[in-house]
Amino acid sequence: MSFVIQENIPLKNLTTMRVGGPARYFVEVKNADELKDGFDWAKDRNLPVFILGGGSNLVVSDRGFPGLVIRPNILGFEVVGEDGNRVLLKVGAGEVWDKVVEYAVSRGWWGIENLSLIHGSVGGLTVQNAGAYGAEIGEVVAQVEVYDSVARIIREFAKDDCYFTYRSSFFQRAGHCIITSVVLSLKKTGTPNINYPDVAKYFAEKNITSPTLSDVRSAIVFIRQNKLPDPGEIGSAGSFFKNLLLSTGEYQKLKEKISVNFGSETTNKLEEMKNRFVTSNGIKIPSAWLVELCGLKGASVSGAAIYEKQALIIVNKNNQA
C-alpha cells in the first residue's frame, strides 16, 4: 500500500459542523487503486468502512466511527470531449466543488454558475444531487465513474443510470459505489438562469438586464455569503432540511392544518408558495417558511441552533453543540 493508515483521528476537524468523535482508523486516498486497497485493508480486519467527502453535509456522533474512514482526495480536471456547443469536463471526486465552478466560469462554460459557493466535494455533491437557485448538479452530469466495492471493479454510469431526483441519486442507495470522477456537460453559450426570487431581486436592484456568466456567479456568491454562515467562522452542516414535495392529498392536509392553526392570511401565503414553486414532481413548499412559521428560526438546544438568517441551516453555535 502506498498510503498510511492513521488511528483515532478526530472527525470534528474534518467536518464543517465541527462535531463528532474519532475515526478508529482513517486514510486519505489519491486514486481508485488506493481506494480499492483501503477497502481490502478493512475487509481483512472485518471493519466497516465510511466514505468521507468534504464533510459539509454530515453530523458525526460523539462516539465516532469504529471502522475505517476513507477520504477520497482524487483530484484533476480534464476536457474529455468538445464540439461547437459543449465541453465535457472530467473532474476528480475529491475536488472542491466551488473550485470547479470557478474554473468553468473563468473559461466561459455555462451550466453550474448557479451552484456557486456550495461547500463540499464533487463526489459528495453528486451523490446528493445538490442544488440551489433553480439548478441541480444532476442536470449537467454526463457520466459518473465509481469503484464498486462489492464487485471490486471500476464502473461507469451514464446520466440516466444515476437516477437523479430532488436531492437524491442512485448512489445514495448504493453505498458500495464510491464516486471517483464525474464528467460534466457544459455549454459554450447559455442563457442566464435568474428566475429565482433572490437572484432576480439582486439584478433588479443593480439595474442589470443582461447579466453575463460572471455576473451570475457573482450574484450567487453575494447572496449566499449574506444568507449563509461561513464554515470558517461558525460550524454548520449546510442546508439541513429538504424542501417538501407533496402530493395533492398531502398538500390539502397541510393547508387544512395551517388554516386551523394560523388563519386565512397564512393560508393564502401557502397558496402563493404553491403557485410560485412549480415542479413536475409534486407541490414544492419551502421548508424554511414552515420552520419560520413555527417560530423556530434562531432556536437553540445545547449549542445546536437554527441559523437566525436562514431557517434551513443548523449551526454549531459557539462550537458548543
Automatic annotation (TrEMBL):
Cytoplasm in keyword set:
yes
**Required cofactor names:** FAD
Instruction: Note the Gene3D superfamilies from the entry.
Output: 3.30.465.10, UDP-N-acetylenolpyruvoylglucosamine reductase, C-terminal domain, Uridine Diphospho-n-acetylenolpyruvylglucosamine Reductase, domain 2
The EC number on file is: 1.3.1.98
- Name a single GO biological process: cell division
Matching entries from InterPro entries are given as:
FAD-bd_PCMH, FAD-bd_PCMH-like_sf, FAD-bd_PCMH_sub1, FAD-bd_PCMH_sub2, MurB, MurB_C, MurB_C_sf, Oxid_FAD_bind_N
Q: In which pathway does it act?
A: Cell wall biogenesis; peptidoglycan biosynthesis
A Pfam family matched by this chain, by name?
MurB_C
Asked if the keyword Transport belongs to this entry, the reply reads: no
Q: Which domain of life is it from?
A: Bacteria
Domain FAD-binding PCMH-type stretches: 18-189
- Please list the reactions this protein catalyses: UDP-N-acetyl-alpha-D-muramate + NADP(+) = UDP-N-acetyl-3-O-(1-carboxyvinyl)-alpha-D-glucosamine + NADPH + H(+)
Gene Ontology cellular-component terms for this entry are: cytosol
The cellular location(s) given in this protein's UniProt record come to: Cytoplasm
Q: Which GO terms describe its molecular function?
A: FAD binding; UDP-N-acetylmuramate dehydrogenase activity
Keywords, comma-separated and alphabetical: Cell cycle, Cell division, Cell shape, Cell wall biogenesis/degradation, Cytoplasm, FAD, Flavoprotein, NADP, Oxidoreductase, Peptidoglycan synthesis
Q: What does this protein do?
A: Cell wall formation.
Q: What is this protein called?
A: UDP-N-acetylmuramate dehydrogenase
- Native source organism of the sequence: Candidatus Kuenenbacteria bacterium RBG_16_41_7
